[in-house]
UniProtKB/TrEMBL annotation:
Species of provenance: Armillaria borealis
InterPro entries, per database record: Isoprenoid_synthase_dom_sf (IPR008949)
Name of the protein this chain belongs to: Isoprenoid synthase domain-containing protein
Classification of source organism: Eukaryota, Fungi, Dikarya, Basidiomycota, Agaricomycotina
SUPFAM superfamilies (alphabetical): Terpenoid synthases (SSF48576)
Length: 258
């Protein structure tokens, strides 16, 4: 059985509140995934199973319909990066991430390609977030740049096959830069309306770090089945299984050691 995020969420010992726009946005997003022509049949199947709108509506239950749709579409766009790693040279990944980095960090740039609908999703999301919380957007832009640099690092990491010769602790530090955890946490803080000067307070900074770490771990636990089927090796569960000699069910079961 393909374990999907909705299954994992239903098992959590917490109650999730879905955004009121969930159903309508989910239908529109899923139709876009199926009809856009951007995704292969395999990717389309996986994305529909993932239900990005469910995840986004639980993380951001107070966001409006436009924002929820943009976040859902961005989730699908970022999903393309994984397959891109498998078939592209590191230099090509670098060029792609430069474009996506600019689309978010500088959405008014004249250098953006208006004909690229995937960049348009990113650009529109940046403009919407900047309008919603102009005081917090600079922090979001920095974390987005960190993620884009992390994607480049990930491409080089896999090109050199370093995932087969790394300790668990080393890989955690790597995933903190590559799993988009900081940006996801920043997007949550955007909903909280924290004053910009409070985000770097030692206590808040520590909480942001721990939350980004948790996001990275959750990402790898969730994607374990896909990564294992690819023989990818670059996954916390796979690396911890190898280093600490326990099986997959113990690693991702009810009493997770990861």
């Amino acid at each position: 059985m393909l374990v999907t995020l909705p299954h994992l969420l239903k098992d959590w010992p917490v109650e999730g509140t879905l955004c009121s726009h969930y159903k309508a946005v989910s239908e529109a997003h899923n139709a876009w995934v199926k009809d856009s022509g951007f995704f292969s049949p395999k990717q389309t199947y996986a994305l529909l199973k993932l239900d990005a709108t469910l995840l986004c509506s639980m993380l951001y239950p107070g966001c409006d319909e436009v924002m929820l749709r943009l976040l859902s579409d961005l989730f699908a766009v970022s999903f393309l990066f994984d397959d891109h790693f498998e078939s592209s040279k590191a230099e090509d990944v670098l060029e792609q991430t430069k474009a996506f980095g600019r689309a978010y960090s500088d959405p008014d740039s004249s250098l953006l390609d208006p004909a690229n609908p995937l960049l348009k999703v990113t650009q529109d999301l940046a403009i919407a977030m900047r309008k919603k919380a102009p005081e917090a957007f600079p922090t979001l832009a920095v974390t987005w740049d960190t993620w884009m640099r992390g994607i480049c690092e990930e491409a080089l990491f896999h090109a050199a096959k370093k995932q087969f010769d790394v300790t668990f602790d080393e890989f955690i530090e790597h995933r903190l830069r590559t799993a988009a955890g900081e940006w996801a946490v920043g997007a949550v803080l955007l909903q909280c309306k924290f004053p910009e000067n409070l985000l770097d307070h030692p206590v808040i900074a520590k909480m942001r770090y721990e939350a980004a770490l948790l996001a990275a771990i959750a990402n790898d636990v969730y994607s374990f089945n896909i990564e294992q089927s690819r023989g990818h090796g670059g996954n916390m569960v796979i690396i911890s299984m190898k280093q600490y000699s326990f099986d997959a069910q113990e690693g991702v079961g009810p009493h997770r050691r990861v």
